[in-house]
């Protein structure tokens, strides 16, 4: 298998980070890969924290009243798929955990693929699945939040 | 611990006896069988002796065996060779070469199965796409069996070739080759008496059958048959096409006119010797052991029962009864094939899968699709292919490891 997947991928495949379910999640999202039929599910728990000074200047108009930002306090995934799909889920959750929603939304599949080391071209779409999973779960959260406001 | 190899349908190791038999033909006896000098004549004698040994198993004449580079080449030679020769005769019958493409009902018609090995299937599809033939892909039933009546029903006046595999490489189901062969033979003699329609040739890819089943070409009533050495503990790079005398075929590799002018290229002497030795070992074992297949069959059944007993939501793909002694193809719901394979590999076990994620094209196995296995199930398919060398303790170890792997992956899966 050494020639198929990099050390990084094998590490995440063997010991996936953030794998599991959040029972009282603030949002969840299930996405499927039309190419190969794989399925990924993401759960997030969102919390607020005061904006750091630097960020305050930048996003003044966004969150004036509260001066707080929402961030991913916890994230978990479940994936039915190939080694690259499991590893990219693990890497993606690790990359966004603790990040503000705004930052997390900036995650790209390229970044995930880069972290995976050598990724066979036929497996690029697996990292795209993870990016979409993160975007979708945040989107679901925001939709729900906006509806409740 | 030693690795456990359960992917014998992909390839097998060269047996030490086979390797020994091949050794002299690299550096010491290196002659070209077409040369006139003693070195060449010795090579010729070696090739012909090896051919003769193989011919005994196939119950055919020496001149009916053409050595090739392997199974894919043999399949290509059979299909393209028959089609091209049929087009040639047709053109002659119509009075020489015609510029205009033939009309659809004049095109040669080829019948094969929907779950054939890609060496046959893609070749037929390609010829169909380029407008050289018409094709019918007979569907197997849910058990993975092709009915002779379905083949018969697909026959048209212009049918020139039927190609059906002996044992399916993925699910191991055994096809009724003899029955289909006899049916075609009857039809052919009726056709020739009435002088209507063409002769229909019957090709069989017997690669996965060679270790266990009857390869007597007269018993099987085949006109062409493909075999390969590396699936029976012989070397890679050598195969053969049996071609009954009188079968007209257009060569696909031209040049020095070796192999009865049907396949040019300097003979792979060492490969041919290794091939014959591998066949001979099987024959000798079959003579010595009353039921050569039963040991492998017992282990196969133990593995199937063990999996179905210990792992919920698992199923066997393909007929249980009409099945190669070596094949176990199972699906697990809520676990993906590639992930299962990597985990097995980490546990020291080699197997293969028909899941979309393991195929470069990201498409699920056409074989499982053809027998109606739903994508959710084919996604989690694994093939274990045994051999007469497989040990019971290897199966026991697999039966210990596999449930843990499936459980672990199911824990990760959002779909249960
Ligand atoms: S998710 Fe199926 S190939 Fe990666």
UniProtKB/TrEMBL annotation, chain A:
Q: Show the CDD domains listed in the entry.
A: IscU_like
Concerning Pfam families, the annotation shows: NifU_N (PF01592)
User: Which lineage is the organism of this entry classified under, starting from the top rank?
Assistant: Bacteria, Candidatus Berkelbacteria
Listed name of the protein: Iron-sulfur cluster assembly scaffold protein
The protein's organism comes out as Candidatus Berkelbacteria bacterium CG10_big_fil_rev_8_21_14_0_10_41_12
* Top-level division of the source organism's lineage: Bacteria
GO terms classed as biological process: iron-sulfur cluster assembly
Give TM segment ranges: none
Which residue ranges does the record assign to the NIF system FeS cluster assembly NifU N-terminal domain?
5-48, 67-146
**Which GO terms label this protein's molecular function in UniProt?**
iron ion binding; iron-sulfur cluster binding
UniProtKB/TrEMBL annotation, chain B:
Entry-linked Pfam families: Aminotran_5
Q: List the GO molecular function terms.
A: cysteine desulfurase activity; iron-sulfur cluster binding; metal ion binding
Name its co-factor(s). pyridoxal 5'-phosphate
The EC class name is transferase
- Protein's recorded name: cysteine desulfurase
Q: Source taxonomy lineage?
A: Bacteria, Candidatus Berkelbacteria
Q: Keyword annotations for this protein?
A: Iron, Iron-sulfur, Metal-binding, Pyridoxal phosphate, Transferase
Q: What is its EC number?
A: 2.8.1.7
Family per UniProt? Belongs to the class-V pyridoxal-phosphate-dependent aminotransferase family. NifS/IscS subfamily.
Domain (Aminotransferase class V): residue spans on this chain: 4-398
According to the record, the segments passing through the membrane are none
What is the source species?
Candidatus Berkelbacteria bacterium CG10_big_fil_rev_8_21_14_0_10_41_12
PANTHER family, alphabetically? CYSTEINE DESULFURASE, CYSTEINE DESULFURYLASE FAMILY MEMBER
Show the catalytic activity: (sulfur carrier)-H + L-cysteine = (sulfur carrier)-SH + L-alanine
| Chain coiled-coil ranges | none
């Amino acid at each position: 298998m050494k020639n198929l997947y990099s050390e990084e991928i094998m590490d995440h495949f063997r010991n996936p980070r953030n794998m599991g379910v959040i029972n009282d999640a603030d949002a969840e999202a299930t996405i499927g890969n039309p190419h190969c039929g794989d399925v990924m599910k993401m759960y997030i728990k969102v919390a607020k924290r005061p904006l750091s000074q630097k960020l305050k200047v930048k996003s003044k108009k966004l969150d004036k009243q509260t001066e707080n930002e929402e961030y991913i306090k916890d994230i978990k995934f479940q994936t039915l798929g190939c080694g690259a799909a499991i590893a990219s889920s693990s890497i993606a959750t690790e990359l966004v955990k603790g990040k503000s929603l705004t930052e997390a939304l900036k995650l790209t599949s390229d970044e995930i693929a880069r972290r995976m080391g050598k990724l066979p071209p036929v497996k690029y779409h697996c990292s795209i699945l993870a990016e979409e999973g993160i975007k979708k779960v945040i989107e679901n959260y925001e939709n729900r939040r906006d509806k409740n406001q | 611990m030693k690795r456990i190899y359960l992917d014998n349908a992909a390839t097998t190791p060269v047996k030490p006896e086979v390797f020994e038999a091949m050794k002299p033909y690299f550096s010491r006896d290196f002659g070209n069988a077409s040369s006139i000098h003693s070195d060449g004549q010795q090579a010729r004698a070696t090739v012909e002796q090896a051919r003769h040994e193989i011919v005994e198993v196939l119950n055919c004449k020496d001149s009916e065996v053409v050595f090739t580079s392997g199974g894919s080449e043999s399949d290509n030679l059979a299909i393209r060779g028959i089609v091209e020769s049929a087009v040639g005769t047709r053109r002659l019958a119509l009075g020489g070469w015609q510029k205009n493409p033939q009309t659809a009902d004049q095109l040669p018609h080829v019948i094969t199965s929907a779950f054939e090995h890609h060496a046959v299937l893609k070749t037929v599809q390609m010829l169909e796409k380029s407008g050289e033939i018409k094709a019918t892909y007979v569907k197997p039933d849910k058990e993975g069996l092709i009915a002779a009546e379905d083949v018969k029903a697909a026959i048209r006046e212009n049918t020139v070739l039927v190609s059906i595999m002996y044992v399916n490489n993925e699910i191991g189901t055994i096809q009724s080759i003899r029955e289909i062969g006899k049916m075609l033979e009857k039809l052919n003699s009726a056709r020739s008496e009435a002088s209507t329609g063409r002769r229909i040739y019957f090709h069989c890819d017997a690669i996965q059958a060679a270790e266990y089943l009857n390869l007597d070409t007269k018993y099987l009533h085949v006109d062409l048959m493909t075999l390969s050495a590396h699936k029976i503990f012989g070397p890679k790079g050598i195969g053969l096409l049996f071609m009954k005398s009188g079968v007209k075929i257009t060569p696909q590799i031209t040049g020095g006119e070796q192999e009865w002018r049907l396949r040019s290229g300097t003979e792979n002497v060492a490969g041919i010797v290794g091939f014959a030795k591998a066949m001979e070992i099987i024959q000798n074992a079959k003579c010595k052991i009353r039921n050569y297949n039963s040991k492998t069959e017992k282990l196969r059944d133990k593995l199937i029962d063990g999996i179905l007993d210990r792992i919920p939501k698992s199923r066997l793909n393909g007929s249980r009864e009409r099945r190669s002694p070596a094949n176990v193809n199972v699906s697990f719901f809520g676990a993906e094939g590639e992930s299962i394979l990597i985990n097995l590999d980490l546990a020291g076990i080699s197997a293969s899968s028909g899941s979309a994620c393991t195929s470069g094209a990201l498409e699920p196995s056409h074989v499982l699709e053809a027998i109606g296995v739903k994508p959710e199930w084919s996604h989690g398919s694994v093939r274990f292919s045994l051999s007469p060398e497989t040990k019971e303790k290897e199966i026991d170890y697999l039966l210990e490891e596999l449930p843990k792997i499936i459980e672990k992956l199911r824990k990760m899966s959002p779909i249960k």
